[in-house]
């Protein structure tokens, strides 16, 4: 009760502060320590600023969505004491919005049909995120006898830069490092890059706080925002949590799910991971006090300015 009162108190002036953040998990598995860190960091940065914090379920990639994962993530967040503003937004229900943005780009000649299979593109040089750079095969028209499968966004040459609130200035030459990227996939689904840009703008997100594993996607999102005439939110990329082998925690890397029975312990570990120096004993205290302390003491200056950090033992 006290916690709800306290959080409402923190949010009542949200409209006045103008800060609106979000957490946008993909329901491809249960919540692991890496997603807990992103949830906590984005929530605390919003609440400490007296802002709103929204929840969006990024289930746009239907083949990767795991049945039951979205409900499990929501239940875990609730058990951990997170409370979000408004209704959860589901990407799977927003396809007409993505279609509308895509059509605007198509009518303006900003996208083109591409016949290349994944295997054909896989032979190209690799970009910074390890994905192959698209060599521009279909940019000026489909090769004779080939049919379009996916639709790609036409990337202009030049640097796309932004000032990350934690990582500093980040620049990427999209054309050289990524190439024209897919907005509408061969399986008819819209790509994450388009969905996230449309949703962040329509939800009025002012601050995107997420893991640095997504930092290489940000220039693509900025390019789309510019072409669609959408505002650019502020970005803060928290260190991504990696396992002992240096891989991002995920279902693919068999990340362990957070322990629902010991929320204080996992939250205290996440606070420590984020450099917030929680007082000793917090893992054994009550949830209300932990949240109150965390919001009151949230300090961006203490965040480690790194792109990846190994998970603490046991996480
Ligand atoms: N859905 C993405 C993920 O779970 C996060 C996207 C974002 O925060 O922009 O990795």
Structure overview:
- Helix 3 (33-48) packs across helix 10 (263-273), helix 3 (33-48) packs across helix 11 and helix 8 (192-202) packs across helix 9 (218-228).
- This protein has 2 domains: 4-95 and 200-310, 3-Layer(aba) Sandwich (Rossmann fold), CATH 3.40.50.620; 109-192, Glutamyl-tRNA Synthetase, domain 3 (Alpha-Beta Complex).
- The chain has 315 residues and is an alpha/beta fold.
- The two termini are 30 Å apart.
- The chain contains 11 helices and 12 strands.
- The protein has a 3-stranded parallel sheet, covered by helices on one side. It has a 3-stranded antiparallel sheet with strand order 4-5-8. Strands 6-7 form a two-stranded antiparallel ribbon.
- The model is unreliable at 1-12 (pLDDT under 50).
- Glutamic acid binds next to loops.
Write the CATH architecture name of the largest domain: 3-Layer(aba) Sandwich
* H/E element order: HHEHEHEHEHEEEHEHEHEEHHE
- Give the uncertain stretches in residue-range form: 1-12
Portion of residues within helices = 25-40%
Oligomer: single chain
CATH class of the largest domain: Alpha Beta
Biggest sheet character: 3 strands, parallel
Number of helices: 11
List of distinct ligands in this structure: glutamic acid
Which structural class matches the secondary elements? Answer: alpha/beta
- How many strands appear in the DSSP assignment? 12
Rg result: 20 Å
Q: What do we call the CATH homologous superfamily of the largest domain?
A: HUPs
Shape: elongated
CATH topology call of the largest domain? Rossmann fold
What is the total domain count? Answer: 2
The overall pLDDT average reads: 92
């Amino acid at each position: 009760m006290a916690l709800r009162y306290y959080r409402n108190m923190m949010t009542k002036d949200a409209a006045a502060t103008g800060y609106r953040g979000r957490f946008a998990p993909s329901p491809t598995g249960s919540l692991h320590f890496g997603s807990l860190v992103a949830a906590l960091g984005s929530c605390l940065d919003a609440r400490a600023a007296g802002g709103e914090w929204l929840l969006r379920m990024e289930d746009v990639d239907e083949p990767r969505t795991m049945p039951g994962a979205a409900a499990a993530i929501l239940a875990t967040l609730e058990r951990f004491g997170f409370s979000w503003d408004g209704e959860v937004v589901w990407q799977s229900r927003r396809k007409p919005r993505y279609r509308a943005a895509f059509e605007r780009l198509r009518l303006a000649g900003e996208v083109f049909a591409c016949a290349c299979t994944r295997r054909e593109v896989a032979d190209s040089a690799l970009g910074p995120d390890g994905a192959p750079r698209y060599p521009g095969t279909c940019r000026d028209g489909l090769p004779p006898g080939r049919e379009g499968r996916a639709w790609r966004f036409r990337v202009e040459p030049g640097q796309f830069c932004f000032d990350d609130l934690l990582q500093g200035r980040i620049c990427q030459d999209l054309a050289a490092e990524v190439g024209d990227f897919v907005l509408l996939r061969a399986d008819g689904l819209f790509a994450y890059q388009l969905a996230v840009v449309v949703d962040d703008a329509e939800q009025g997100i002012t601050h995107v706080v997420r893991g640095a594993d997504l930092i290489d996607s940000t220039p693509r999102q900025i390019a789309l925002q510019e072409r669609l005439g959408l505002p650019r939110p502020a970005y803060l990329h928290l260190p991504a949590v990696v396992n002992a082998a240096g891989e991002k925690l995920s279902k693919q890397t068999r990340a362990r799910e957070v322990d629902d029975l010991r929320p204080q312990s996992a939250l205290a570990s996440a606070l420590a991971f984020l450099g917030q120096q929680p007082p000793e004993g917090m893992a054994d205290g009550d949830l209300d006090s932990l949240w109150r302390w965390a919001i009151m003491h949230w300090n961006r200056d203490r965040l480690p300015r790194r792109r990846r950090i190994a998970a603490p033992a046991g996480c």
